[in-house]
Amino acid sequence: MIESQQLMTIDEVAQYLRVKRRTIYEWVKNHRIPAIKTVGQWRFKREKIDAWLDSQQE
After folding, report:
1. pTM listed for this prediction
2. Which of 8, 26, 30, 57: CA 20 to 30 A from 42?
3. Dihedral (CA of 34, 43, 13, 10) sign
């Protein structure tokens, strides 16, 4: 998979997690979800989101 396809936007990660965009912004603000800020926009690596989800089950 190409690197750019592994990066998700706010909208994509919100849809992936089935939460509102506002929730993702709050989680980013409070450092609850792994995120990268690039060129003024938040991006999320799918593999990091999956690992984060797995860690939330414990």
Report:
1. 0.83
2. 57
3. positive
The CATH number covering residue 49 comes to 3.90.105
Q: Which three-class secondary structure state does DSSP give residue 44?
A: strand
46 three-class SS: helix
Pairing of strands 7-8, 36-38: unpaired
Total of domains in the chain? 1
**Is the distance from CB of 35 to CB of 19 less than 8 angstroms?**
no
The tens-digit pLDDT sequence of the chain (58 residues) is 444 468 999 999 999 999 999 999 999 999 999 999 999 999 999 999 999 999 988 6
Residue partners of 25: CB distance under 8 A and separation at least 6: 10
